[in-house]
Design goal:
Its cofactor is FAD. This protein has 389 residues and is an alpha+beta fold. It contains 11 helices and 12 strands. The chain is globular, with a radius of gyration of 21 Å.
């Protein structure tokens, strides 16, 4: 058994035995589990030696391939990644800070995230229509309107952001803004009176604490030594975070769909119709068979992409392929689980309906399927031109 598999086995047992019972806890709301619930679960993980298991005591990370095993195990409950502190956006933010922050910034901003005592938010996406041609950075970050202007030994940031996951209740913020040199990235303490949450959106997903907020940033003053990297490094730094983060989303939601499939399979074997168990009807049995195929293909895609990332390549192309293939496959799995279970599948009696909602949202965040396909199509064209000499 590899190091990753050993940790994953412990995480799986912990999630199934200690965290699954929390799935009916009323402290899980439409805007995500409360911080009280998160800290209660993290205390259990800390006692079990499983808090932030993908980061080693010396600060180094498991390999991406090892992380795949661990995060899939955490995802067996929608609450699992939160409990063991591998949930987005914190997991991606920890990875970025671990790779690119100075020792001083790591101590101040990364340590509380690794310790599980603080949450973070990544401020990049902007509202549509705020600028010309519907501008505001979304899938096209070059349309960023939030500005950063030098003022002595500080930067002054102004702009609006939207769909900012976890901003409500976060203690660490990573803000993307456009300086004269280009997009830049800043670390800030939260809450800050210059960052105002206008509203928390009502969305179909409900797994992330704090929900997704619309935010106004007005004259936020950030000391120059809280810039991550150099002015104009923002897009490059964002790729350091986003390429692995797309994949870790795949890992967590793969675990959730494994669990949904288990629940649907149990239902299909126990529920009878027309004189036999549902599973013996081809229409139902075949859907569960197709689930097995999609789960295995997704697992192989995740592991392949993780291995590419472990070579040291950013793996942007590979992570785009994985994001498309896995998110679409998991959507099919979640949909089949709902269908197999009928009315029960759309009720809150099991987590199947939540997994369906969460995976539907997953097809959009960290780049919608169509944006990744567009990017891959451009690569096809570039490769063709290169082959022509």
């Amino acid at each position: 058994m590899t190091r990753g598999q050993e940790i994953a086995a412990r995480v799986e047992a912990f999630v199934r035995e200690r965290i699954v019972p929390y799935e009916r806890d009323p402290r899980s709301t439409s805007h995500g589990p409360s911080d009280e619930l998160v800290q209660e679960m993290r205390a259990l993980a800390r006692d079990a030696g499983l808090l932030t298991p993908h980061i080693l005591p010396d600060g180094d990370h498991l390999t991406h391939r090892e992380t795949a095993d661990v995060l899939r195990a955490s995802g067996l409950s929608p609450l699992g990644p939160l409990a063991v502190n591998v949930m987005a956006p914190d997991e991606g933010n920890m990875y970025l800070l671990g790779k690119k922050a100075s020792p001083e910034l790591k101590e101040r901003f990364l340590k509380p995230l690794v310790d599980g005592t603080a949450r973070s938010a990544f401020f990049m996406t902007e509202p549509a229509g705020d600028g010309p041609n519907g501008g505001g950075a979304g899938s096209d970050p070059s349309m960023m309107l939030t500005t950063a202007v030098r003022d002595g030994n500080h930067w002054v940031i102004n702009g609006r952001k939207t769909f900012i996951t976890g901003a409500d209740g976060a203690k660490v913020g990573i803000v993307m803004a456009k300086a004269d040199e280009g997009a830049s990235m800043f670390l800030v303490d939260l809450p800050d009176p210059a960052i105002r949450i206008d509203r928390v959106l009502e969305t179909i997903d409900s797994s992330m604490p704090g929900g997704h907020s619309v935010v106004t940033i007005e004259n936020l003053r950030v000391p120059a030594d809280q810039m991550l990297g150099n002015p104009g490094d923002g897009f490059k730094l964002a790729q350091v975070r986003l390429a692995p983060a797309r994949l870790t989303h795949c890992m967590r939601w793969h675990g959730a769909c494994v669990r949904a499939h288990e629940i649907a399979t149990d239902y299909a074997n126990r529920r009878h119709a027309f004189g036999k168990p549902l599973v013996d009807h081809e229409g139902v049995g075949f859907m569960l068979a197709e689930n097995l195929i999609d789960l295995k293909q997704s697992e192989l895609m995740i592991d392949w992409c993780a291995s590419v990332l472990d070579t040291g390549d950013l793996g942007t192309v590979e992570s785009s392929m994985a994001k498309v293939a896995v998110s679409e496959a998991l959507m099919r799995i979640a949909d089949r689980c709902v269908q197999v279970m009928g009315g029960t599948g759309v009720s809150g009696d099991t987590i199947v309906e939540q997994v369906f909602r969460e995976v539907r949202a997953f097809r959009i965040y960290d780049g919608p399927t169509e944006v990744h396909k567009w990017s891959l199509a451009k690569k096809v064209k570039r490769d063709w031109k290169a082959a022509q000499g």
